């Protein structure tokens, strides 16, 4: 498990809440005891502080469903909600795709207000049953196919999981009188932002790759259920997210895991896993947010956001892919072998130059990112150093330049 947290003040963590129902003293004591027993399993900076103010209509919320909770960002959200809000029961539904792992939720597995359910959100019968059976009040919807590179290959999977999956959830939510449907989307739905200002939330969506197109399509459905049926939805659109627990296919975690393998792979000339691959010229830049800060934002948006609104979750920190590689190489103390650790490979089919969102609306709710980029990088490096090889099984296939999942073809289907 992650190393013990640095700034622990467990006394403020699991107080009975003014949100939802109050706990009786036995439940309260049991939760506090569990938090103290498992304190070494959490990074309490990431867990953060609970939201003490909440919309009036959320006072009797009891059951929360997190889809994709065994994934990267979802696991940060689940750990936070389980530890900070004993008055909520947190259900996780996840199909445990290649990038998901129940290890990411092990720290909360003994908590009575947590339950994991393996399942697929694209199944209407299953989702309808689950929402009814567990009397779900609130949904944090994070489950998705999330890797742009994969969407250049088997893009049908993206439409199935991201569009159909969202549609299925919306129908189940409509039938079950949900109080909040928090739909987690991405800054990529705006398309690249080169010679125009940072995008406010009412910018017309202009996605440019199959991943972002399916995220934008899912948003259209979410908004349609708000307009047509009054479903109490909120949408979030965040910059790139990084941190521990991220399957190492995305740039930060992939570079870190590649650099961690330096020395072990030197002889494998044709399996260049010791190198940080830079797509194209490396000039494409991204803004980064640490995952704990994104979980904070989702918590605030849930408790205080206005129904029907979208909220950008943005970072002021921007870095080109090439500079990110150089920064990590320096953090590893490998600057004398800088060129050895950088290899330029063919760019993606299409690669947006940059994304930029205006997040002043969320800042007005009191949110600010609290984790500086280098602090988040060091936390991530330490975590991957300890866990990368055990968390998801063999990750070598994720560390190649373009890990494309092939599209099923007519010829393939004939052999089935
Ligand atoms: N990672 C980022 O930089 C980033 C940035 C902005 C927005 N987002 C959005 O945040 C959400 C979470 O992203 P992440 O990086 O944590 O993703 P991830 O790939 O780490 O996790 C996705 C999880 O969803 C699960 N899942 C996928 N399809 C499912 C299905 N049909 N049924 C049940 N479970 C399913 C997977 O098993 C996995 O555990 C996504 O919706 C993504 O679009 C991510």
Task: Provide an overview of this structure.
This protein is of the alpha/beta class and 416 residues long. It has a domain at 25-246 and 288-319 and 353-372: Rossmann fold (3-Layer(aba) Sandwich), CATH 3.40.50.720. It has helices spanning 25-37, 44-47, 72-84, 124-133, 148-151, 155-175, 210-229, 251-260, 291-304, 321-331, 360-363, 373-391, 410-414; strands spanning 63-67, 89-94, 114-118, 138-141, 180-186, 233-238, 240-242, 276-279, 285-290, 310-313, 318-320, 342-345. The strands form three sheets. The chain has a seven-stranded parallel beta sheet, sandwiched between helices. It has a three-stranded mixed beta sheet with strand order 7-9-11. It has a two-stranded parallel sheet with strand order 8-12. The longest helix has 21 residues, at 155-175. The chain is globular. The N and C termini lie far apart (42 Å). Bound molecules: nicotinamide-adenine-dinucleotide. Residues 67-68, 70-74, 93-97, 99-100, 120-122, 142-144, 146, 161, 165, 184, 186, 215, 238, 240-241, 247 line the site of nicotinamide-adenine-dinucleotide. The site of nicotinamide-adenine-dinucleotide has 30 residues, from helix 3, strand 2, helix 6, strand 5 and strand 7.
């Amino acid at each position: 498990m992650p190393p013990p947290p640095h700034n622990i003040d467990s006394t403020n963590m699991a107080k009975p809440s003014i949100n939802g129902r109050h706990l009786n003293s036995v439940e309260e004591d049991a939760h506090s005891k569990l938090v103290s027993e498992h304190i070494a399993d959490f990074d309490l900076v990431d867990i953060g502080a609970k939201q003490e103010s909440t919309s009036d209509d959320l006072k009797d919320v009891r059951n929360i469903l997190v889809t994709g909770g065994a994934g990267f960002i979802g696991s940060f959200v689940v750990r936070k909600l389980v530890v900070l809000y004993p008055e909520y029961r947190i259900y996780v539904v996840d199909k445990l795709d290649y990038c998901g792992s129940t290890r990411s939720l092990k720290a909360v597995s003994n908590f009575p207000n947590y339950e994991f359910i393996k399942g697929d959100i694209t199944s209407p019968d299953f989702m309808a049953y689950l929402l009814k059976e567990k009397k779900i009040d609130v949904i944090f919807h994070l489950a998705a196919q999330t890797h742009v590179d994969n969407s250049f290959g088997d893009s049908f999977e993206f439409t199935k999981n991201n569009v159909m999956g969202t549609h299925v959830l919306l129908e189940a939510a409509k039938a079950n009188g949900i109080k909040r449907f928090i739909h987690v989307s991405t800054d990529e739905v705006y398309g690249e932002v080169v010679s125009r200002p940072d995008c406010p939330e009412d910018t017309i969506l202009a996605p440019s790759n199959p991943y972002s197109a399916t995220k934008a399509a899912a948003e259209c459905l979410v908004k349609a259920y708000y307009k047509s049926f009054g479903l109490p939805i909120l949408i979030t659109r965040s910059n790139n997210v990084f941190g521990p627990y991220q399957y190492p296919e995305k740039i930060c975690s992939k570079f870190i895991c590649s650099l961690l393998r330096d020395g072990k792979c030197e002889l494998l000339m044709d399996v260049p896993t010791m190198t940080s691959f830079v797509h194209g010229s490396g000039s494409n830049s991204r803004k980064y947010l640490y995952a704990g800060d994104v979980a904070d934002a989702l918590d605030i948006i849930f408790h205080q956001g206005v129904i029907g609104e979208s909220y950008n979750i943005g970072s002021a920190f921007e870095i080109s892919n090439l500079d990110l590689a150089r920064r990590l190489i320096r953090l590893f103390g490998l600057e004398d072998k800088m060129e050895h650790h950088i290899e330029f490979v063919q760019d993606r089919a299409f690669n947006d130059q940059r994304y930029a969102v205006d997040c002043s609306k969320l800042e007005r709710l009191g949110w600010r990112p609290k984790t500086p980029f280098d602090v988040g990088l060091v936390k991530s490096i330490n975590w991957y150093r300890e866990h990368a090889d055990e968390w998801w099984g063999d990750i070598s296939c994720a560390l190649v330049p373009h890990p494309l999942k092939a599209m099923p073809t007519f010829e393939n289907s004939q052999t089935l």
